[in-house]
Design goal:
- This protein is mainly α.
- The protein has helices at residues 3-6, 10-35, 42-55, 57-70, 76-100, 108-127, 131-139, 150-167.
- Helix 5 (76-100) packs across helix 6 (108-127).
- The longest helix has 26 residues, at 10-35.
- The N and C termini lie far apart (54 Å).
Length: 168
């Protein structure tokens, strides 16, 4: 009951945890980006992002339920504060990416981060299916291609995305 003195709903409580996780993750990635000298290669960027996701596994799980669960049942003020916090981090890191990845132009950094966000959501749901679906996949060898390793697929897909952006 004491929690509800500070948070109106359980979703608002988890959104506060999401806020902390995002702040820590963005801080860690910013530090790594700034510590890597010269322009970044796509491989360096993929490694930095994936390492940060490995370091903050709770963030990956929270991102996967952010839009479908955590942003539900919150009031306008909580939603506004969360989106403003997230927008500030995305704009700052987007600008850093545009200065470090030579093929990005103004605005591309933020868009790249939004694509990464969507990629994490989709791959997390696929990598951790419902228990009954996991049983089905384990029992049927012809369905094994549905079983994915989140980090392997994330790195491969991000590398492909960056290669496409660089080719443009």
């Amino acid at each position: 009951a004491t929690f509800y003195l500070y948070f109106k709903t359980k979703e608002e409580l988890f959104l506060a945890l999401q806020t902390q996780a995002f702040a820590a993750w963005f801080g860690a990635v910013d530090d790594r980006l700034r510590a890597t000298p010269g322009p970044l290669t796509t491989q360096q960027f993929v490694q930095i992002i994936d390492n940060a996701l490995v370091t903050y596994p709770q963030l990956v799980r929270l991102i996967a339920i952010l839009h479908t669960t955590l942003e539900q049942n919150i009031d306008f003020a909580a939603a506004l504060a969360f989106k403003q916090m997230l927008a500030e981090h995305v704009r700052q890191m987007g600008a850093i990416l545009e200065s470090r990845l030579p093929f990005l132009v103004a605005g591309d950094g933020a868009q790249l981060l939004l694509c990464l966000h969507a990629l994490v959501i989709g791959l997390q749901h696929m990598a951790e299916p419902a228990p009954i679906v996991a049983q089905v996949l384990d029992a049927q060898p012809d369905l094994a291609f549905f079983q994915i390793n989140f980090h392997e697929q994330f790195r491969a897909t991000l590398q492909t995305l960056l290669s496409g952006l660089a080719a443009q």
